Amino acid sequence: MQTDQLLKGIGAAPGLAIGRAVWWRKERPEFTIHTVEDPEREVARLKQAIEQAQEQISRLRETAAERMGESEAAVFDAHLAFLSDPAYTGEMERRIRDEAKNAEAICAAVTQEMSDMLAALPDEYMQARADDIRDVGDRLLLILTGRQPFDPSLLEPGSVVVAEELTPSDTAQFPQGIAGMITARGSKTAHAAIMARTLGIPAVLGLGKALDQIQDGDTLILDGTTGDVTRNPNPQAEQAAREEMRRQRERRERALAAAKEDARTADGKRVQVFANIGSLNDIELALQSGAEGVGLFRTEFLYLENDHWPTEEEQYEAYRRVLEAFNPNPVIIRTLDIGGDKDLPYAELPKEENPFLGHRAIRFCFSHPEIFKTQLRALLRASVHGTLWIMFPMIENVSEIRQAKELLAECRAELVKEGVQVAEKIPVGIMIEVPAAAVTADLLAPEVDFMSIGTNDLTQYTLAADRGNEQVAHLYDAAHPAVLRLVRQTCLAGKKAGIPVGMCGELAGDANMTEILVGLGLDELSMSAGAIPEVKERIRSVQTNAAEAKSERALAQSDPDAVRRIAQE
C-alpha cells in the first residue's frame, strides 16, 4: 500500500535509509508489590540476579568492543559499575531488609528514583545517563521475573528497527545490515543514538504517538538529518532516496580518508574542528576521527561516577590524562556544570521548582567555593601536562567572570606558595549559553581569552522550548534565526575584542549548517567525534564570501525551516 505518509521526529544519526519496518517489542515485566517474611531470601535473589546481569552485560561489552571499538563499549563499563554501586544495588539491599518488600518492587523503585535524579540534571549528556540506569534496571527485572527479552536474530538485513525506546544494550545487539532505527522516545545525546552514529546507522528519535501508525512490513524512508520518516513511499520517491544514499556514501568515504588533515575553506580560511568528550573513554575515538583538540570536556562524569565529591588528586589524574592525550593541541575543560532540583546522591542541595533557571553551574560553584576551588586547583596542577584552556559555564554578566577569575588566581597563588608548578599562560573563557550573555557579548569579551557558544541551552532559553519535552520538540531548533542572530552577535563581539569564538553545541556537528556557521564568523567548531570527518569535508568546500552571503540570507528568514532550505542549496 502506498501512502507517502510523512512523519516527523528528531534526526539523531545522519544519513538516509530505506527498509522494511520491524517492531522491537519489549517485554514489560509485571510484578506485584508485596511484603516478604524472609528479607534475606529476597536479598539473595537480588544478588543472584545481579550476577546474571553482570554476565550478560560483560558479553554485550565484548560484542560492542568488536563491532564499535573500546570507546563505545565503555558504556557497558558504566552499566557494570551501576551493578556494584552501593548507592544503587546497595540501596536495594538495604531497603529490602528495612521495608521487607519483594526484590522486584524495590529494584523498580530505586531504579526510578536514580533515573529521575539523572534526568533532572541540567546537562543533556548527563540526562541521557538516565537511559543507562533504566536499561540496567529493566535487565534486573527481567531476570527477577523470569521473562525473556526480544530476540534480535529476528531482524533481517535491511530492516528498520521500530521501537518505543532503544537502550544501549539493544543497539549493541543489532545484527549486521540493519538499515536504520526509529523510536517514539529518546534524544540526540542518548547512548543508543551515539551508538547508532558510531555504527553509521541513520536514526530518527522522538516520533511520539506517530510511531503507532507504522506496521510491521511497511516500507520506510528515514532521514536521520532532518528527522523525516516517509511511510510506504511512491516508486519515484524511493528511487530518488536511493540515488541520494549513493551520493552520501561517496561523500562519507572521501571525508574519512581526509579526516586527520587540517580543515581550511577553499579560499584558505582556517577553521579548527574539535571534539566534545564526556569521559576519558571518549579520547580514542576523538583522536581517530581527526579531532584537533577538545572543545568541550564535560567534567560532570567525575562527580556522577563517584559516591563522594571527587578529591583534588582524583580530578588531577583525569585532567592530566586528557591533556597528555591531546598535547600540544588545546583541551577546553568546562568547570562543574551541575545543580537543579535533584542533587547528587552524596550532596545535600535544596530542591528547585525550575532547575534549568536555578542554582546550577557557576552559580552553584560560587556558593560552594570549597568544591569549586578543589576543581580549580586540580586543573592548575594538570596544566603543565598539555595545553589547558579553562571555561566557565552559565555566565551572564561581567561580575561573574571577575569573581571566577579571582578564585582561579587565588588557587594559583596557593599552589605557587606550596611550590607546585603551574603553566605560565592558561587561557580563560566562558560559555555563551544564556541569551543575556550573547546580547552583552561585547561587554563580556574584553574580560576573557575566548568564548564558546553552547547552542543546546542557548536554543532552549531563546525559544522557551524544553529540549527534552517531546511535545515542544518541533519548536526546538538551533537553526532558528533568533539563535543564529545571537551567534552572529557573539562572533562580532569576539572579533572586535580580538579573541576566538567557537561553538560546542549540537549545531556545530550539523554538516548541513557548516557553511552558514563559517559565514557567521566562527573560528572553531566542536562536536561528537563521529561528525568530525564530514564537517571538515564541508569546510573544505566552502568559499568564505559565499558563506557570508548565505549566512546573511539565513539571518533574514523568519523560521528555521527556511534557514535549513537555504543551508541545503
TrEMBL record:
Active site per the UniProt annotation: H191, C504
GO annotation (BP), single: phosphoenolpyruvate-dependent sugar phosphotransferase system
Record-listed phosphoenolpyruvate binding positions: R298, R334, N456, D457, R467
Entry keywords, A to Z: Coiled coil, Cytoplasm, Kinase, Magnesium, Metal-binding, Phosphotransferase system, Sugar transport, Transferase, Transport
Coiled coil ranges: 36-70
GO MF annotations, alphabetized: kinase activity; metal ion binding; phosphoenolpyruvate-protein phosphotransferase activity
Basic and acidic residues bias spans: 240-251
Span of domain PEP-utilising enzyme C-terminal: 259-543
EC number(s) recorded for this UniProt protein: 2.7.3.9
Subcellular location: Cytoplasm
The family this protein is said to belong to: Belongs to the PEP-utilizing enzyme family.
Role description: General (non sugar-specific) component of the phosphoenolpyruvate-dependent sugar phosphotransferase system (sugar PTS). This major carbohydrate active-transport system catalyzes the phosphorylation of incoming sugar substrates concomitantly with their translocation across the cell membrane. Enzyme I transfers the phosphoryl group from phosphoenolpyruvate (PEP) to the phosphoryl carrier protein (HPr).
Protein name per the record: Phosphoenolpyruvate-protein phosphotransferase
Organism of origin: Polycladomyces abyssicola
